[in-house]
Design brief:
Blueprint: E1 4-14, E2 21-32, E3 37-41, H1 48-55, E4 63-68, E5 71-72, H2 78-85, E6 88-91, H3 105-115, H4 123-130, H5 147-159, E7 165-169, H6 177-194, E8 197-202, H7 205-211, E9 214-219, E10 222-228, H8 229-234, H9 239-246, H10 288-292, E11 298-301, E12 304-306, H11 309-316
Helix pairs in contact: 5-6
């Protein structure tokens, strides 16, 4: 049974002063297996961060369900929600803004342990050691640490309730390249040592490839393609995925690359979404059916799902 499941998640935000709504999530569904890392990739504004906040119940979905080990988190409130939410924790993009500037690191970690009644002697030092920080960092304030060290503290704080799922929302994008590599290696180590399932959210296809077992590509609040990362990157089914892949720099430019156009144009207005497939105004392969009908996210190949009329028809003719 999947550890974490999202079923048809929809999120709408009212527009102040009008009767319009922002379409942030438009029916997102996926499943995460125990110990698996799912990468979620897409442009800014595609709904990745909104999805993360809904998954941990920082925001309630307008429609849909989030199941953690078979328990519907969207139906829980109060004490029952807190008891289950400890098993799914989030690491935010900016570690400085997510830490109290006047609270020492040790006190921040101890506060989480106290909330979940997990205090025990030496536990703060254990958490610091797990993320590669010496025990004396317990006395430091956030401004006394580097960005990479603060992010390690953010990871330690997320690990304090002993979660089963870790959500990482652009958690390394603000770091220098060398520090980013260190944190990515730490995440891989935590997965191997603790058996943590992870949802790794990023706009960077290269980083998602480095850490993920499977990839879900999001566009305009929907998953438009999903599958094993090797398959998705080697042979994208959706034109948007192909465009994202084409935008990834190649270390050796002498190696021949497929002539795939990068994604051009702008994301549609989320208050007034286009009819049919939301990608059709930017798609080089768009047909009349794309402008009229919303394609479902369907299995096109074994273990591969895509929401594309053209890809579905092409695969059926193979």
């Amino acid at each position: 049974m999947p550890l974490l499941e999202a079923h048809d998640l929809v999120k709408r935000y009212p527009v102040r002063g009008s009767d319009g709504v922002v379409h942030a999530l438009n029916g997102v569904s996926f499943a995460l297996e125990p110990g698996e890392t799912l990468g979620i990739v897409g442009e800014s504004g595609c709904g990745k961060s909104t999805l993360a906040r809904v998954l941990v119940r920082l925001e309630d979905p307008t429609q849909g369900r989030v199941l953690l080990d078979g328990v519907d988190l969207t139906a829980l409130r109060g004490r029952r929600l807190r008891a289950h939410r400890r098993h799914i924790q989030m690491v935010f993009q900016d570690p400085f803004s997510s830490l109290d500037p006047r609270q020492p690191v040790g006190a921040a970690l101890d506060e989480v342990l106290a909330v979940h009644r997990l205090r025990r002697p030496g536990r703060v030092e254990e958490l610091l050691d797990v993320v590669g920080l010496p025990a004396e960092f317990a006395q430091r304030l956030p401004h006394e640490m580097s960005g990479g060290q603060r992010q390690r503290v953010g990871i330690a704080r997320a690990l304090a309730p002993e979660p089963r799922v870790l959500l990482l929302d652009e958690s390394v994008s603000a770091l220098d390249v060398s520090v980013r590599a260190e944190v990515m290696n730490l995440l891989a180590h935590l997965r191997a040592e603790l058996g943590l399932a992870q949802v790794f959210i990023s706009h960077d296809m290269a980083m998602v490839r480095q850490i993920s077992d499977r990839v879900a590509v999001m566009y305009f609040g929907r998953v438009v393609e999903e599958g094993g990362w090797r398959d998705v990157l080697a042979d994208p089914l959706h034109p948007y995925t192909a465009g994202l892949r084409a935008a990834v720099p190649v270390p050796d430019p002498s190696i021949a690359q497929p002539l795939t156009p990068t994604v051009v144009g702008e994301v549609p207005d989320p208050v007034r979404p286009p009819a049919g497939c939301p990608f059709h105004p930017r798609c080089p392969r768009a047909e009349d059916v794309c402008r009229a009908e919303l394609p479902p996210l369907a299995e096109i190949r074994t273990g591969r799902r895509a929401a594309c009329h053209v890809a579905s028809r092409a695969e059926a003719l193979r």
